[in-house]
# Entry
Amino acid sequence: MEAVERSSDGSRTLVPRALAMAAVLLLAVVLRTTFVTGVIHNDNLAYISTAHDFAQHKAHDATNATPRLREGVGRLTTYLPVGLLYRIFGVSDRVTLAWPFLCSLLTVILTYRVTVLLAGESAGLIAALVWAIRPLDVSLATTLLPEIGRAHV
# Structure
C-alpha cells in the first residue's frame, strides 16, 4: 500500500507508507533504547516480585499481602505478561522491560492506525511521529508500571 503525496511543484509522488512507518518505529526504538529508565520505583519492585511469583507458580493471597501488593494483585496486565516472559526467557532486566517496551511500540502503531482512520495518511504519520518522540512515553517505555499494559487492554 502506498500513500500519494503532492510535492512542492504540485506533481504527485508515491511514498511507501510502510517505509515511512518503519522509519518512525525505528526512531521510537532508538529513543527508547537510548533513554532506558529501568527499575527505579518501589512500585516496579512490587510488580516484578509479583511477576516472579507468578512465573514460579506461587499463589497470591491478597488478604495477607501488604497494602501495596494487595493493590498490585489486581493489575494483571502489568505482571502476568512479564511473568509469562520470565517463564519463557528467565528473569533478567531485559526481560522485565520487554513488556512495557513492546506496549510502547504498539501504542505508536495504534496511534498511527486510529489517526489514519480519522484524518488520513499524512496525519497518521505525523501523529505516530509525535507519539514516538513524546518524552513521557519514551521514559515510561522502559519501566514496569501498570499504566503501560492497561492502555491496550
